[in-house]
Amino acid sequence: MNVLNVLVLELLILVVANHASRVSKSLNETCLEDGIVVGPGLLKDAYKDRCPDAEDIIFSGVENAVINDPRMAASLLRLHFHDCFGCDASVLLDDTNNFVGEKTAAPNLNSLRGFDVIDSIKSELESACPGVVSCADILAVAARDSVLMSNGPGWEVQTGRRDSLSASKAAANNNIPGPNSTAQTLVNAFQNVGLSLSDLVALSGAHTLGRARCSSFNSRLQNSKGDINLDFLQSLQQLCSVTSTNSNSNILADLDLVTPATFDNQYYVNLLSGEGLLPSDQALIGGGNDQTAEIVRSYVEDEGAFFQDFIRAMLKMGSIGVLTGNDGEIRRNCRVVN
Ligand code: HEM
Ligand SMILES: *[C@@H]1O[C@H](CO)[C@@H](O)[C@H](O)[C@H]1NC(C)=O
Ligand SMILES: *[C@@H]1O[C@H](CO)[C@@H](O)[C@H](O)[C@H]1NC(C)=O
Predict the structure, then answer these.
(1) For residue 75, how far is the Cα from the chain centroid?
(2) Which domains does the chain have, with CATH numbers?
(3) Is the pTM of this model over 0.90?
């Protein structure tokens, strides 16, 4: 590691610490004091005694992966979201004789990435402190680190999740909304798991990173709603024309056409000019919901407000349906139940 890397790392740690103290105050004054219980049984630093290097090991794993493949930051952030209508690492389980896992559910098939990165981080953690760090926590910490690696804000991740003993393809299909969803469908899907309309708008800002397949946004190409920028439309039509009939095609477009690998508020700026990629992105402003549109505009004006709300919403999302206490287990291999 050269001097520059060390400096960057120290800066990141400062940023995390600084953000974390501000978030703690706003989230819940009473129960975040002094690192005691925060979410439903989650802790500020669950591995302090039993695996003090856990977060460093995860950060290095994410850093290496992102250096090799810059898109991996986006993919790891998304993996945590897709785990988190119940953050229990169920998304990582391969199919068995007893259940069909989530990897083949519609929102995930030929789309989720990063499983091998999580495997390699997990194997390092098993060498350092066997049987201690859950796969669900690796996903939560890696999501934070991915945002940091993309010049986004940092925060203190709550840990102490345990891993599920099963997975449900049906639940993944039912809970994760698709890209053709209307604003109201998105609001409902998030409210079903306790996330508010403002959480929805803030979390959608994750689409400032990463890519989507033509099959995810092909309904934008017909311009039936008249809400797409015409130059943008033309470039997408050209990109996708070769393969518009093949839904498994891996021709990809950036979710944020301006700064595709930087975590910033450009995603919201794009929505103002009709350059949201997914129908579900553009629906936040053109979908007839004044409340979501209002929040989009506020994030265009104030990137700091977006960051603050994003952090709060990530902490909230990260505590959905978590397993704690004696529930679940700490998997040795993230792909299979012990
Ligand atoms: C609001 C509802 C959401 C919908 C309908 C949605 C839908 C999608 C779709 C269709 C893709 C492209 C998949 C593909 O074509 O392979 C995608 C990519 C992505 N999503 Fe979402 N998403 C939503 C919310 C979120 C949230 C809450 C996060 C994280 C906090 C997130 C993070 C990402 C990221 C980072 C990518 C790019 C992944 C990559 O390049 O590997 N999304 N999303
Ligand atoms: C904050 O924590 C207290 C004590 O655990 C709890 O009763 C209260 O509902 C929490 N408030 C919020 C906004 O989460
Ligand atoms: C969205 O709708 C279009 C038709 O307008 C369809 O071709 C496409 O498969 C749908 N995408 C998803 C992911 O459901």
Answers:
(1) 8
(2) 36-176 (1.10.520.10), 183-314 (1.10.420.10)
(3) no
